[in-house]
């Protein structure tokens, strides 16, 4: 159960995307989602009040959540930061 209200909506959207796109994930706690399979494999998202920490191995970056969070914005962010390549997304059907 997601207790942290500030993280509920983004985590719910991210989990819905994962179910559609066959990315396996695990909720580690109220604010953290870790991906265990699919193109997001190895990525961990830690949601905070106004930002999200994105961790991939030793790399760490933050995503500003001050605006409206969407899965499309997340994918653009991950592509711009070279976490995902556009070619990897060609085989994934994703919806916001």
Shape: globular
The main sheet comes to: 5 strands, antiparallel
Tell me the series of helices and strands, N- to C-terminal.
HEEEEEHH
The neighbouring-strand order within the major sheet is: 1-2-3-4-5
Number of domains: 1
* Overall strand count: 5
Q: Enumerate how many helices there are, as a single number.
A: 3
Helix content: 25-40%
Radius of gyration: 12 Å
Structural class: alpha+beta
Mean pLDDT: 78
Determine the N-to-C terminus distance.
22 Å
Report the portion of residues in β strands.
25-35%
Q: Which stretches are low in confidence, meaning pLDDT under 50 for 5 or more residues running?
A: none
Q: Would you write up a description of this structure?
A:
With 96 residues, the protein is an alpha+beta fold. The protein has one domain (5-86). The chain contains 3 helices and 5 strands, in the order H-E-E-E-E-E-H-H. The relative contact order is 0.18. The model has no long low-confidence stretch (mean pLDDT 78).
Name the descriptors.
alpha+beta, five-stranded antiparallel sheet, 3 helices
Q: Summarize this, please?
A:
The chain is of the alpha+beta class and 96 residues long. 33% of the residues lie in helices and 27% in strands.
